[in-house]
Write a structure and sequence with these properties.
Blueprint lengths: L4 E9 L3 E2 L2 H6 E9 L5 E9 L3 H12 L3 E9 L2 E17 L5 E10 L20 H10 L6 E5 L21 H12 L2 E6 L6 E6 L8 E5 L8 E8 L5 E8 L6 E5 L11 E3 L5 E5 L7 H15 L3 E8 H4 L8 E5 L7 E13 L2 E10 L2 E3 L7
Parallel strand pairs: 8-10, 11-18, 13-16
Antiparallel strand pairs: 1-2, 1-5, 3-4, 3-19, 4-7, 5-6, 6-7, 9-10, 12-17, 13-14, 15-21, 17-20, 18-19, 19-20
Length: 375
């Protein structure tokens, strides 16, 4: 096994290739942000001389190729992991700290940016196709980017009868997929990997269970792998969602409160907060009962995260990259805050001889429900 940390940068239209050594030598900083519920992004910083041809090369490539693809791979102790697979969206050149130097900053977003370019409103019909089939068909258009669809069927399958109505796409591919996900309480995101050039396009319920990542240790002497860690408990911001289901005979809407009970999002804390307000979802009466309940479960899952944590860790001491949208254990923070958490977002910052991550954690209550966490 090859020890150490190695960065691989691939740039090019559609199918990127490794950049020359001159580009890697000029690279001084990499920042990648992955967060649940928002689009992921990256930023590359280069220090160049004012006469360096790399400045013109990047600007020309960005101008002549609107979808200039960038793949960032980080290899730690022989284990490669794709940090980002996206496209460049903005380049900026500023004066450097020394005479004759310039700083080139390249900013980009993940491949959802590619899906949000063209508006197809009313142009693409979907006769007799459930939501899942529409999503898979749209994602299939981006197979050239190595996009593999992972579509989880909703609890209620609605197949429109063509003689009654034929649904048509509204908005861009991304906006339409997100609209379909919102109808049934699902989420949509693109996760790079597992190998460079491939991506998993996930459309399904937000899942908050699985094998936890190694624990984040705080204030544990030699076992400490977190540089900073703080928690907060918002006991007065938990709201109880209420959906409306319309009676097919009387047309009278029936209110149904939705408790935070979801098998895909099991409780991580033993003492959850009590609801202090009610959120009425007025637009659910036009949906089917199962679709309305699915929408309510999504809102309930988002509202119940009363415990939040933020911190910073050194990847070299942690031994691996902390990943967003997965569980992780916490030790050394005290009885109220120890236990398992859902990783809401992670920002990775790479510099020469330094890899650090800032993260945000969420949980639905105080006191761990598990006696131990994986180390």
């Amino acid at each position: 096994m090859r020890k150490g940390v190695y960065l691989t940068l691939l740039v090019g239209p559609t199918v990127p290739i490794p950049v020359p050594r001159e580009v890697v030598n000029a690279l001084t900083g990499v920042q990648v942000t992955v967060a649940a519920g928002t689009r992921s992004g990256f930023q590359l910083t280069f220090t160049l001389t004012n006469k360096s041809p790399l400045q013109t090369a990047f600007l020309l490539m960005a101008g002549q190729t609107p979808l200039l693809r960038v793949i960032i791979v980080l290899t730690i102790n022989g284990l490669p992991q794709v940090l980002m697979d996206g496209v460049m969206t903005h380049t900026e050149v500023t004066s450097g700290g020394k005479p004759g130097q310039s700083i080139l900053t390249v900013t980009g977003e993940d491949l959802t940016r590619v899906m949000d370019l063209q508006d197809f409103s009313g142009l693409i019909p979907f006769p007799a196709m459930p939501l899942e089939a529409r999503v898979a068909l749209i994602i299939g258009k981006y197979a050239v980017f190595g996009m593999i669809p992972l579509v989880i069927p909703s609890l209620f399958t609605d197949v429109p009868i063509p003689v009654e109505r034929i649904p048509a796409q509204q908005g861009t591919d991304l906006k339409y997929i997100e609209q379909l996900a919102s109808q049934v309480g699902h989420v949509f995101y693109i996760e790079p990997g597992p190998v460079a050039g491939t991506n998993t396009a996930y459309w399904g319920p937000e899942i908050k269970f699985g094998v936890p990542q190694p624990a984040l240790n705080f204030d544990m002497d030699a076992y400490t792998n977190v540089e900073a860690l703080s928690f907060s408990f918002k006991s007065t911001e938990y709201t109880l969602p209420v959906v409306f289901i319309q009676n097919s005979l009387t047309k009278v809407p029936i209110p149904i409160p939705i408790p935070p009970i979801n098998p895909l999002q099991p409780p991580l804390g033993a003492i959850p907060p009590l609801p202090t307000s009610i959120t009425i979802l007025k637009d659910t009466a036009k949906l089917s009962p199962m679709q309305a309940i699915s929408r309510g479960l999504k809102v309930a899952g988002e509202a119940q995260d009363a415990v939040t944590g933020t911190g910073t860790l050194d990847v070299l001491r942690y031994g691996r990259l902390l990943q967003a949208r997965k569980l992780v254990g916490v030790r050394g923070a005290g009885m109220a805050y120890d236990g398992l958490y859902y990783v809401k977002s992670v920002t990775t910052n790479l510099k020469r001889n330094e890899i650090k991550q800032t993260f945000n954690l969420t949980r639905n209550g105080l006191v761990s429900i598990t006696p131990v966490v994986p180390t």
